[in-house]
Amino acid sequence: MTSSNARRREPVLAYSGGVIDRASNHRSDPGWVDAILAADGARLIPMWRDQCIVSGEPAVPAMLAVTEAAAVLNTAAETVFLGLDDDGGIFAADLSPLRQSHAVEAAGGERVLDVRGFVGVLRYPEAALLGYARGILHWNRHHHYCGNCGSATRSGHGGHLRACQNDGCARLHFPRVEPAVIMLVENQGPPRKCLLARHKGSAAGSYSTLAGFVDVSESLEDAVRREVAEETGVPVGTVTYMASQGWPFPSGLMIGFRATATAETISVDGEEVLEARWFTRAELAERAASGGSLGREDSIDRYLLHSWLVEDS
Ligand SMILES: [Zn+2]
Question: How much is the pTM?
Fold first, then answer.
């Protein structure tokens, strides 16, 4: 993997723009997966308990030729097929059962680093691949037992399925993602203003967009309206989809919306949200210009804020 300054020309959201072919129509065939692992060009991303194994400064994540990764393959708890690129297959290997120093040594690295530690260093599609590796290994590691009968499960489909080994159950378990809505709420204006909140645990003056997990049997639009009402008391009318972002920390999917409030009176819940207020574009631009954060660089929160800020009024 290489770092590049070209990331700003690429997808606007981190962990997006993954360019590998996941070959989901082939990976159910264990013979096919084994052949890809044995073929020229096969590479492997070793990970240890959700973290990449890295070398150098800035950190470069390990990606090993399978032919030179016997120490990793022989000790990995799980080897999962991620997909194909022009050079061959890409796999992820989970070294979590090892002590950290042993995992780092087996992978020929120097230390470990979480995927989010590459913000500003890796191109977004490269970060997407690491996030994918992190997420699928995490899922395998946390589904060693059947949720139906408690028996052991075994990995299949290149690591994208786990099958219960109890013949009387034999349930198949597939990776799950956890959807969450994140929304920039604006008033009806003029002047147009957006609603930002200071969440529990955040510093004074630190505001961000509202977000929350989708409930069972709830539409995304209903989740937006519920979360905004619960956290700020503001009623929402129109809800419009903006963008989504895989968020493998560990298994989220952030779904971004623009929402229009039908009233501006705020009443915070005082638990998740400590404070909320309306910002005009001028106020938001001034915060950004004076060094105030508009969210982490890798977050969809920042994308929603910036896209609102640069729109014509
Ligand atoms: Zn079972």
Answer: 0.90
